[in-house]
Amino acid sequence: MFKHKMMRNEILFIILYTSYDRGDNMLTKLKNSTEVIISILLGLFFIILGLFILFNTNAIRNEEIPVSEDKIDTILDLINAFFVEVSNMLSMMIGGFPIVGGILMLLFGLGMFKIASWIRTTTKYDVPLTFFFLGLSLVLFIVTTILMTSVYGNWAFLFLFAFIIHWLYSIFKEYLNDKHRKEHYMIILFFYGLAYFFTQNSVYSSIERTITPTDVLSVNLFLAIVWISSYMSLWVGVFLLKANNLLKKPVTDDGEVLSRLNKKRKTIDTSKLDKYLGFSEKLYNFRNKVIDKVKNFFEIDLPSWFKVSYLELILGILALFFIFLEFNNRNGVFVEGYFKLSDMQTIYEWVNLFIALLLAVLYIYFTVMVLFRKTHYHRQMIIIFALWLYVTVSLYITLFKDVELSLFILPFNIFLVGVLTPLLLISIFKEFKGANRNEKDRKV
């Protein structure tokens, strides 16, 4: 009896171990085939877009169709409103020849499947495919910007400017000193933040006069899909660029020429480059002077056990709690039966609060990773910047724009800005050192 139990336990252990090993191998295979998967997803996107254009040629060819929010009574009405808004946007680009545009999209999507097979089976076409994907990412974002003008006006071109900076940084990243990665991210985030502020200021100036919440939600959803496609294309282009060392950069070792099949890179000496972007040293010196003056004035010192991540966790959890309260208030409208699909304002606020809640959860996660694993500092900085910008712009809109849409009640919004601003300052002034500059995300 005892032997039978032992055998069953051993068999169960072997099954569990084999299942885990298979799952791990599958994840590894998926990770090693990321560029192929992205190519297939891009192909699917263009095929679906082409079919949508062909089935809606009349709507795209005709004048813009207004969406009446009062007539949205069912989920199908809501989905139809989204398709109408997408048709209105596409009419700006291909209104005169929707059939030709739809056929070209279909052919392009099918071509992406052929490109995926090339990437999977050979390195013969890596050089032209590198420039193809880099160009595709730029073209997709230019198209996105043009479509964004229907809601955000000419301020949408600020996003294009920020993306071009990001695009160039991704391509020429290795020309820059990786010791200054923090400064690079701060510059990119600054331009994205600037674009976000001015576009939000523009849309909230018109959201109840010429633009409705339905317009903003539908347009943003479609643009997010195109935007993600653009970044996926950029990722593949940069990956192929680095794998084949197309920039012909000087290297410190004499290893073999790179192949993307083994995904190994040569180490590049950039110690003399990027010398003008080390402005964080001045920030650290200013921080140290302020801390020293405060400690001398109060004649105290920080306890040895204290870590700034403890403060980040406390404030982060506090921000998460108040965001969750506001989100739960909107969610209660759905649960208690007072909600109607025609009330697009509630849906708009719910979606935006859900995004804020997700950012707060991600910040807590990355803060824990920084505290216990000493990694993911850059991700933590990006998330707290996005969350701070989201909440601060919301406060600005509430105070200075005469609109009924508001993500937070005013006391909550002021409190959240007061909590998140120190977290952003901590992230900016926190020194970040890495023992190994080749690590994907260096250690604090």
TrEMBL record:
Give UniProt keywords alphabetically.
Membrane, Transmembrane, Transmembrane helix
What residue ranges carry the coiled-coil annotation?
none
Q: State which residue ranges cross the membrane.
A: 36-55, 90-113, 125-148, 154-172, 184-199, 219-241, 308-327, 347-372, 381-399, 405-429
Record bears the keyword Transmembrane helix: yes
Specify the domain of life of the species encoding this protein.
Bacteria
UniProt cross-references to NCBIfam families, sorted A to Z: teichoic_AuxA
**Protein name as catalogued:** Uncharacterized protein
